[in-house]
Amino acid sequence: MTTWEYTTIVITHGFMGRQSDELDRGKFQEELSRLGAEGWELATVFLGVNLHREKDGHVVVFKRRLD
């Protein structure tokens, strides 16, 4: 049986951006590449999530196989 582990990042307004409503695509791509190099694979994205005690945003879920 395959076993997975998961991690998430949250994208909010201003996440790695230069202004309050911008996304810095270059920095975001760097973060995605870093996660990919660590073996993480994009699993799904949940849009517009109301997060408990955190700034609301989009939740990006990654998974990787546990060996």
Could you tell me how far the N terminus lies from the C terminus, measured between alpha carbons in angstroms? 11 Å
Provide the β-strand percentage band.
Answer: 35-45%
- Main beta sheet: strand number and arrangement? 3 strands, antiparallel
Order of helical and strand elements: EHEE
The tally of beta strands, per DSSP, is 3
Number of domains: 1
Shape: flat
Helix content: 10-25%
Mean pLDDT: 86
Number of helices: 1
Helices and strands in order:
Blueprint lengths: L2 E9 L13 H13 L3 E9 L7 E10 L1
Antiparallel strand pairs: 1-3, 2-3
How would you describe what is shown here?
- With 67 residues, the protein is α+β, with helices and mostly antiparallel strands.
- The chain has one domain.
- It contains 1 helix and 3 strands; from the N terminus they run βαββ.
- Strands 1-3-2 form a 3-stranded antiparallel beta sheet, with no helix packed on it.
- It is flat and about 40 Å long.
List keywords for this structure.
1 helix; 67 residues; 3-stranded antiparallel beta sheet; flat; 3 strands; single chain; alpha+beta
